[in-house]
Amino acid sequence: MAGAVDLLVITTLTLWTVCALANQLEPVRVRFRRWDCCSIIPSWRLFAPNRVGDYHLMYRDVYEVVGTGPWREIRVKRQTGWRRAVWDSRKRERKMLFDACAYVAAIASRGNSQTLRLTLPYLLLLHGVEKLGSHPMLARGTQFAIIKTHGTLTPDAPAIVFVSEIHRLDGASPTRIVS
Amino acid sequence: VTAETSLLLASGIVSVGVLIDGLERVVSRDALSSSGLLSWRVLRYSRAVTIDGFWGAKATLFLDTPGVAYLAIAEVIAGMSGVLLAIGGVFHTLPIAAATVVLVAFNFRNVYGGDASDNMRLLVLGGLLAYGLNPDSASHLAVWFIAFHACLAYVASGCFKLASPAWRSGRAVVGVMATAEFGVPAVARALIRRRVIAICAAWIVILFEVLFPLQFALGYDAAFVFLSAGVVFHGFNAAVMGLNSFFWSFIATYPCIAWAVGELGGA
Questions:
Q1: Please, which of A95, A149, A169, B24 could form a disulfide with A176 given CB 3.0 to 4.6 Å?
Q2: How many CA atoms does the CB half-sphere of B15 hold within 13 Å?
């Protein structure tokens, strides 16, 4: 029995190590990502090759009579000051927003907008706009945009990297986005 | 220091990270609900198997509210137990196994929103679990496993940075510090004013990461320097960039690295 456990432990750790080594190579990483459903295999890029800028998720509502409302941002609270050295309870939401925005921006830049609205990142962003945005009862639709800024100190203007189509809002329903 | 002691220390440190992570998930549990950004009602569409049917229903039971809130509470309990046991000088497999299962479940659930600290924590927990399953013969293997993966993380990351012109010129450091997510405007302004500091900071990080395994050849004195620098590095990243979970995940590997350096006979 002890021998079987030994074998299992050695095999698992060896396989894990081999996969982790291989996963540092870009072509392997792309392949592994498809079946590594639990993010078990690490990829140690850690801010390389370059992490510049932020994505901002904006939305605006569309009205029957007055046209469109102003663009507003979906913000997730960021812990400030020294406390964030030990505590930042909203970091996963911000990371999700960043990852989803980056994915949608990348797909949109390749011109694959037809299938984009069926992808998970698009649905996550739409869900975020629906649930975290403030939609007046008179609003009949909403659309979102992804803005990329290049850091707080650079003179580069923010870039609009994606604008969604308008999604209809159901005024009577608490779950308002219906398409 | 024995291999067992280094694993005990690693379990204590990684359990602090597990505890903080669990508490953060409990406090921000509204994000996991149907009206949150990490709603299972959307995330379940990431895989065909979780959309509906038998497995979809089972996954929803654990990964939608309220099941996912219980998972977060289990993480808190596992972390707290791990810390208290380590303080008492006891290694127990149960909190390690629970923390591993919860982390894998959250990784499966949250397709987006994870980071490299989760990867490193899972590797540490994996090594500790291997030791817990077979404490008589797996202690050395577990320590080497954790130490090797820490080195791989630093070296791979250092090589990617070394290959990047933005890192070599220091622009990447300014870029990161100027972001709203990780940056501090005062630090970014200082780096822009004195470009040489940005270049030095970038090269210090690159050299620290690429040369990290050198301590295995140079021995304890070098290990003391590298591991102390690592604590400062991750402490700075936590305080300035908000990478709090990276601190506990990576520092947890240090007792194993120190033991492995000694095992190789470094004087």
A1: A169
A2: 29
